[in-house]
Amino acid sequence: MRKNIMKYIDLHTHSNYSDGTCPPSVLVEKAVQKGLAAFALTDHDTIAGTEDAINAIKEQNAPIKFIPGTELSVAYKDRDIHIVGLFINHKNTAFKNAAKMIIKRRDDRNMEMVSNLHKAGVPISMEALMEGNPDTVVTRAHFARFLVDNKIVSTPAEAFKKYLDTTTPYYVPRKYIEPEEGIELIRNAGGVPVLAHPLHYKLKETELEKLIKRLTLSGLMGIEVLYSNHTEADEIYAKKLARKYNLLPSGGSDFHGSNKPAIDIGSGRGNLAVPYRYLEKLAEACNYPL
Question: What is the pLDDT of residues 50-70, one digit of tens each?
Fold first, then answer.
């Protein structure tokens, strides 16, 4: 339990509605146990877990604020980047329809990869990947977990190297929406778009700043400056980018449960501490009542 001198938050977490392993109700329990004042659920390309989280807080009478969110994968050159959307109106029809389209594209890709693996003798199916949750957004992490659980490989890293990496013959690329579309979807649903883990993409400084300029011109409002994998130098650089491009600072653990066992909700790898004031400024930017 954290001391009550300062309030801390986590604005980047995943449940079993995407590639996390914990149901939203367990995320609520864990966030309360860590003494967090608020947390956001930011599953990949979906807001399907929002109602579960809201209901869990009511049922548990949990003393914590919940922020509905998502993490959209969008196209950038030969890769994808991620835009976290905070304060999403999960009943927004346009957003829900767009999410269905995005998930269908992902599902179509996944079915092709399942077929490719089948041809290679791997006994895999979409039903097995969903793990009993038909609403889950299946990612390559689900494939990796299946391959490990069925002793086809020993580790997730081996699963990616042999079967799931973009260089393998089984991989099928996804069709992504453009960054401008993702930002517009988030803002039209009442949300604040935030560039997730900006240093994760391994872009050169000039290329990263070019990307941030493009996103900012399209309505990007925030950037993750505090993140589980950031070094002290990374944090300093990310905060510098936030100031330079007038972006609101955000932060989160990118908690995935047992899929990323070294990362805990709220504290990341042990030294993450996202201050509550970040949430206040982000909420103020979209007139979201805390």
Answer: 999 999 999 999 999 999 999
CA 73-189-60 angle, 5° bins: 90
Of 62, 12, 13, 29, which Cα lies nearest the Cα of 251?
12
The string of pLDDT tens digits covering residues 179-235 is 999 999 999 999 999 999 999 999 999 999 999 999 999 999 999 999 999 999 999
Contact assessment for residue 208 and residue 101, using Cβ atoms and an 8 Å cutoff: no
| 109 inside domain | no
Structure tokens at 63: 């003393």
Three-state SS across 113-163? HHHHHHHCCCCCCHHHHHCCCCCCCCCHHHHHHHHHHCCCCCCHHHHHHHH
Give the CATH number, domain containing residue 28.
Answer: 3.20.20.140
